[in-house]
Amino acid sequence: MKDQFWTISNILSLSRIVLMAPAIYFFLGPSIYHREYAVLFILLAVSTDALDGYFARLLHQESEIGKIIDPLADKIGVGIVVVLLVIFGDIPLWFALLVVVRDLLIFAGGVYVKKKKSIILPSNMPGKFAVSFVALTLTLAMLRYSMFGLVQEFSLWLSCFFLILSFSIYVRRFVSVLSAEEQGASQ
């Protein structure tokens, strides 16, 4: 199952990217509840994130390509939403840059480690918390409900904390894996 591309789990991961099209359509639409409809599509996409891993393990469909598609789909979806929210002034530019630059660096580092060591570094638990708080922050920003202002602000700062923490763990693991290679080569 390591080489198979068209598995249930990979299709679910790819569906996250496809679901961004109606999310964008509704976000930019003229309907009175356009943002709420967009959030529904994004929440549907988020639900596939939990399901793809579940089915990969349940059906023994864990694959190297799935380990790439899953986080890539997350990064594409988050990137699209972040750009839209910055354009419409719903989140600060510095927060968008933190989210996008961190994701790009982690993805580039992962590709580099895969090329050098033929392994894919797994995500870490603070990264999963970061993704959850980023999703909450972005969802609340999309909805623009003033009653959630304090929750959105708190979620934004928790997102920052976990984004930085998870990135530092990833960098430490990245350096450790690459330095292990150098130590092995010098012996």
In short:
It contains seven helices and no strands.
Features:
single chain, 187 residues, mainly alpha, Four Helix Bundle (Hemerythrin (Met), subunit A), globular
Question: Can you tell me about this structure?
Answer:
This protein is mainly α and 187 residues long. The chain has seven helices and no strands. The chain has one domain (8-186): CDP-alcohol phosphotransferase transmembrane (TM) domain (Four Helix Bundle (Hemerythrin (Met), subunit A)), CATH 1.20.120. The chain starts with 7 loop residues before the first helix and ends with a helix.
C-alpha end-to-end distance? 35 Å
Report mean pLDDT, rounded to a whole number. 88
Structural class: mainly alpha
What characterizes the major β-sheet?
Answer: none
Contiguous low-pLDDT stretches (5 residues minimum) are none
Share in β-strands: under 5%
What's the CATH class, please? Mainly Alpha
**Share in helix:** over 70%
CATH topology (fold) name: Four Helix Bundle (Hemerythrin (Met), subunit A)
- Write down the overall geometry: globular
Write the element-wise H/E pattern from the N-terminal end onward: HHHHHHH
Compute the number of strand runs.
0
Helical stretch tally: 7
Radius of gyration: 18 Å
